[in-house]
Specification:
Elements lengths: L3 H6 L7 E3 L18 H12 L5 H15 L4 H15 L5 H10 L12 E3 L8 H23 L5 E3 L12 H4 L4 E4 L6 E4 L9 E7 L2 E9 L2 E2 L2 H15 L17 H13 L19 H15 L3 E5 L8 H10 L16 E6 L4 E5 L6 H17 L17 E2 L6 H20 E8 L4 H6 L4 H17 L5 E6 L8 E4 L4 H10 L6 H16 E2 L4 E2 L1 H5 L4 H14 L6 H4 L1 H6 L4 E5 L7 E3 L8 E7 L4 E8 L7 H25 L7 E3 L15 E3 L11
Parallel strand pairs: 6-9, 9-10, 14-18, 18-20
Antiparallel strand pairs: 1-3, 2-11, 2-19, 4-5, 6-7, 7-8, 7-12, 10-11, 13-21, 14-15, 16-17, 20-21, 22-23
Helix pairs in contact: 2-3, 4-19, 6-8, 6-12, 9-13, 15-16, 15-17, 15-22, 16-17, 17-22
C-alpha cells in the first residue's frame, strides 16, 4: 500500500507525471525501440558535422559516408543484421550502449562516471543529529523499496510531446539491486533478485572508512526508525574503536577499473598479476582464512540494498561547490574517500556537518530515476521528521557486523597507490555550482520559448565566447518510451546555434537579426519542419543518430568485419568527442545534480531550471590549459543576460506583423529535456519570422 503521505504529496515530487495502480514492472504496453532508416541517419550525421569541419575535411567525409550507404554496400548489410537483432531482442541497442557508455570504460568511477545528487544542507549541531537524520532516511528508502517490491510505485508516463506515453520502469528496480563487478577487459552489471518478502535484508553502513552490515529486515520484520537509530549509534561507537579498525578497502573501488579488478583478485584469491612469492613469508592461498574472510565481506557488500555513508565533517566551508565535490569523491583518503563503495548502485551520504546527498553507479539507471527516489525521501522525511527517541535495549537487537579484511602486504601497497590516484583526481576537479537569480524558466516561457532549448543555446554561446569555436555537444534525451530504453543524444551544437553565437559576438550585430536567429536556433533544437533537421523529437522517439551509428559499428565487430571506413574517419572521432557534455536534471526540491566532464579538455554541465532561477553545475579539469569552470560560468551568466535583453528589446520594440508566426513550447520539459511540442507556421514562402 502507498503511504498516505506519498499520495498527498506525489504530484509535487517530480517533473515526471505518474499514474497510479499500474504494475511498475509491467512493460507489455511498452513498444520496442525502432530502428531508424539508414539513409536518414547518414543524412542527419552529415548535417551535424558539416559546420564542425573545414570544407575539404567535410568533402572527404561525405564521400566516405556515401560509399558506406551505397546500395548493396556495407551499411545496408549491417542494417539488415540490426533489423534481425531487433526482431529477436527486447532492445537492439541496449547491450551495445551499456558496454560502450559504461562497462568498457576503464576510468575511475568517481567524477568520471558516477553522478551525485546534493541534498539541501542540514543544520546538525552534534553527531547524534546526523544519526537521527540517517535513521529517518533509511526508514524512508525502506518504505520506497516496499512500494517497488509490491509493484505499487505509480508508473511513469511522459509529459510534453506525446504526453501520456508510458515509460519503461525497469531502471527503478535496479536502485536497490544492482552492483557493478570490475573486470580487466569489461565490467559486469549484476542485478540481485530476491523474494518479494525476504526473511532478512541488510544495508552497509560506512563510518570512518570502515564497513558494517546492518540488518534492516529481520524475520520478515522491518526495523523501526527507533531500531535503526539504536543500531547506527552502535556503529558509531564501534567505528571509534581504533584497536579494531580495518584497512580502508573502499579506496580500491575509487581506482581505475583495471586496477580495482586486479586488486579484487588479490583480495579473494591471493593471486594475480601483482603477486610476488617471497621466501619464508606467508602467502594467501585458495581456501585460506584470508580468502574466506575477504570473500564473505565482498559478498555482504555485493548483496546489500545500498550503502549509507556516515561522513566525518571537517570542511571549513559548505559552499554548493564544496558540497558537490564532497559527495562526488569524499575528499580523498585523508577524509571520507574510503567511506564509499563505488561499485554499489546507490550510496546515501550523511555528513556530520550537514553535507548530505546520494551518489549513484550510473550504469544501472539514469539520474532522473534516482532523483524521483530522492524527492520521495525528502518528502517522506518532511512529513515524518526525525526526533529524539529512547534507545532500545542493547540486548534486543543483534550487533551490526564489522566487515573484516585479511590483507597481504601487496594490498597495502595497492591501497597507497589508489589513495594517491584519488588525491590527484580530486585535486584536478574544477567544480563550480552556480545559481543564476536574474530569472528562471517562467520568464523564458513568457518569451514563447522552451526553457531547455533556451538554456542549450546559452551554453553554446558561453562555450563560443570562451573558445571561439563550436564543438560536438551531448545532451541526454530519455528513450524510456521504449522497452529497456535508456538515453540517446540531442546534438544541440547545430548550424543554427553556430550562426546565432557568431551574430551575438559580432560587434556590429543587428538586434532584430540576432533575435530571429535565436528563434530559428531554438526551433531547430526541437524540430525544424522546414528542413527536416532531426533533433529533439526524433531523439525521444528513438530515431536519433548516435545509438544507430553505434549499433552499426558494433554489429560490424560482432560479424568480425573490418571496422568500416566511416568509423575510422577523423570526423566520426571528433563528432563523438563531447567537449560539452550536458544534461537537464530538474528537481522539485532545493537539491541539484553534478558530475564531471567526459573528456580531459571538456566541460560537464548539469542544469536545473527552477521557476525564478537556474542552477548550473559546471565541472572541468584543472590540468587542461583549455578549460576553466569559473570563466565558463562568467560567460554563461553574461550570455543568459544578453539573451534575455535581446528578446525583450525585440519584443518591446516591434509589433507583430502579418505573416509567419513561430509557436514555441512553454510547458515543463520533465524527464525528456525539451519535450514540449513546437511547430513552425509560415503563411508566405518569403515571410520573415515574427513574435506572436
Amino acid at each position: 500500500m502507498e503511504s498516505s503521505f506519498y499520495v498527498q504529496h506525489h504530484r509535487k515530487m517530480s517533473n515526471v507525471k505518474r499514474e497510479p495502480a499500474q504494475d511498475s514492472r509491467a512493460t507489455h504496453t511498452i513498444p520496442k525501440l525502432p530502428l531508424p532508416a539508414l539513409k536518414d541517419t547518414l543524412e542527419t550525421y552529415l548535417k551535424c558535422v558539416k559546420h564542425l569541419r573545414t570544407h575539404e575535411q567535410f568533402q572527404k567525409s561525405q564521400e566516405i559516408v556515401q560509399r558506406f550507404g551505397a546500395p548493396g554496400g556495407v551499411g545496408e548489410r549491417l542494417q539488415r543484421k540490426l533489423q534481425e537483432k531487433r526482431e529477436k531482442t527486447d532492445n537492439w541497442v541496449s547491450d551495445y550502449w551499456l558496454n560502450d557508455m559504461y562497462l568498457n570504460n576503464k576510468l575511475a568511477l568517481p567524477i568520471n562516471s558516477s553522478p551525485a545528487i546534493v541534498f539541501p544542507i542540514q543544520n546538525f549541531t552534534a553527531t547524534i543529529h546526523s544519526v537521527r537524520f540517517a535513521a529517518n532516511l533509511i526508514s524512508g528508502f525502506l518504505e520506497y523499496k516496499s512500494l517497488l517490491d509490491a509493484c505499487a510505485l505509480p508508473a511513469d508516463v511522459a509529459r510534453g510531446q506525446l504526453a501520456g506515453s508510458p515509460l519503461c520502469m525497469k531502471q527503478h528496480d535496479r536502485i536497490f539491486s544492482a552492483y557493478r563487478v570490475p573486470g580487466r577487459e569489461r565490467d559486469t552489471l549484476v542485478e540481485r533478485r530476491g523474494s518479494a518478502a525476504p526473511q532478512t535484508e541488510h544495508i552497509i553502513v560506512a563510518r570512518k572508512n570502515q564497513f558494517f552490515a546492518l540488518d534492516v529486515v529481520i524475520n520478515s520484520r522491518r526495523l523501526t526508525e527507533r531500531d535503526l537509530q539504536t543500531q547506527l549509534e552502535k556503529i558509531v561507537q564501534m567505528a571509534a574503536d581504533e584497536g579494531k579498525r580495518q584497512p580502508p578497502i573502499g579506496l580500491l573501488t575509487s581506482d581505475g577499473r583495471t586496477e580495482w579488478a586486479d586488486a579484487r583478485l588479490q583480495l579473494v584469491s591471493g593471486t594475480g598479476p601483482f603477486r610476488r612469492k617471497r621466501c619464508g613469508g606467508s602467502v594467501n592461498v585458495p581456501g585460506s582464512p584470508a580468502e574466506s574472510t575477504n570473500r564473505d565481506s565482498l559478498d555482504l557488500l555485493e548483496r546489500c540494498l545500498c550503502l549509507v555513508c556516515l561522513d566525518d565533517g571537517d570542511r571549513a566551508e559548505l559552499t554548493d561547490s564544496a558540497r558537490a565535490a564532497s559527495i562526488l569523491h569524499g575528499g580523498g583518503a585523508g577524509a571520507n574517500g574510503g567511506n564509499r563503495w563505488y561499485d554499489k548502485a546507490t550510496q546515501f551520504v550523511v555528513g556530520v556537518d550537514g553535507c548530505c546527498g546520494v551518489v549513484c553507479e550510473h550504469s544501472a539507471f539514469e539520474g532522473i530515476v534516482l532523483v524521483q527516489c530522492a524527492e520521495y525521501l525528502l518528502k517522506y522525511m518532511a512529513g515524518n521528521p526525525s526526533k529524539s527517541v529512547r534507545a532500545a535495549s542493547l540486548n534486543e537487537l543483534p550487533l551490526p557486523r564489522r566487515l573484516r579484511w585479511k590483507c597481504a602486504p601487496v594490498i597495502y601497497k595497492l591501497l597507497a597507490s589508489s589513495a594517491g590516484r584519488l588525491a590527484r583526481l580530486l585535486e584536478n576537479l574544477d567544480m563550480n555550482v552556480y545559481k543564476f537569480h536574474q530569472y528562471g524558466k517562467e520568464l523564458i516561457k513568457s518569451l514563447k520559448m522552451s526553457p531547455d532549448a533556451f538554456i542549450q543555446v546559452a551554453l553554446q554561446l558561453a562555450y563560443y565566447r570562451c573558445h571561439a569555436r563550436a564543438v560536438s555537444t551531448y545532451e541526454s534525451a530519455s528513450i524510456r518510451r521504449f522497452e529497456d530504453g535508456r538515453a540517446d543524444n540531442i546534438r544541440s551544437a547545430t548550424p543554427e546555434a553556430l550562426a546565432f553565437v557568431q551574430a551575438m559576438t559580432d560587434k556590429n550585430k543587428n538586434v532584430r537579426g540576432s533575435s530571429r536567429l535565436l528563434l530559428t536556433t531554438s526551433n531547430s533544437h526541437h524540430k525544424d519542419n522546414s528542413t527536416g533537421f532531426l533533433l529533439l523529437f526524433e531523439a525521444i522517439m528513438g530515431l536519433a543518430i548516435d545509438n544507430h551509428l553505434l549499433g552499426l559499428r558494433e554489429m560490424a565487430r560482432d560479424m568480425k568485419m573490418e571496422n568500416p571506413e566511416i568509423f575510422r574517419d577523423e570526423t566520426y572521432r571528433i563528432s563523438n568527442e563531447f567537449l560539452l557534455s550536458t544534461s537537464q536534471v530538474p528537481t522539485a526540491n532545493e537539491m541539484f545534480c553534478c558530475y564531471g566532464p567526459v573528456v580531459s579538455n571538456g566541460y560537464g554541465v548539469c542544469y536545473n531550471p527552477q521557476s525564478d532561477h537556474l542552477v548550473f553545475s559546471v565541472a572541468s579539469f584543472r590540468e587542461s590549459p583549455h578549460t576553466c569552470s569559473s570563466q565558463f560560468v562568467q560567460s554563461l551568466e553574461r550570455g543568459l543576460s544578453d539573451m534575455r535583453d535581446l528578446c525583450q528589446k525585440c519584443q518591446h520594440a516591434s509589433e507583430p506583423r502579418r505573416g509567419a508566426t513561430l509557436e514555441m513550447p512553454t510547458g515543463d520539459v520533465g524527464n525528456e529535456p525539451g519535450s514540449a511540442a513546437c511547430s513552425y507556421k509560415n503563411t508566405k514562402p518569403d515571410s520573415t519570422v515574427t513574435w506572436t
